[in-house]
Amino acid sequence: MISGSVIAIADPAVTGKPIISVTVSNASDEQLSIPFQAAVDAGFTGFLTLRPEAITQPGLPFIANQPAELADGAIGHYDVYAGRIVWHDQQRLIPIFSVDSDPLVGMALLWNSRLTMDIVPDGRVTITPLPS
Length: 132
Fold this sequence. Notes:
Elements: E1 2-8, E2 16-25, E3 33-40, E4 48-50, H1 52-56, E5 62-69, E6 75-87, E7 90-98, E8 104-105, H2 107-110, E9 113-117, E10 124-129
Parallel strand pairs: 3-8, 4-7
Antiparallel strand pairs: 1-2, 1-10, 2-3, 4-8, 5-6, 6-7, 9-10
């Protein structure tokens, strides 16, 4: 199970972001890794986004530059890197978009999982695998 909490983003808290902890490692060297906090974003269809400086720290290998549609319908072009994470107790090699914004966990990473959130300040966020 992966867990986190809902972080209030307004005062008084009327909305929040579900935040979880994730560690990304270099695909060929697990010693080169970086832990970070990422928001769960059901509107993002990819696996994961990281800031460019977070990608260079563990030296993630470049895969390609790829177009992606943003929430407003605009098309952006983003560098994509390979990274390794532990997800539901399994090592996974995933594509990571380099984006100059807060890290996001997307629907591709959440696939075959149950996401549960208590939408209150410091509410519990859990991600559990669904049975195969």
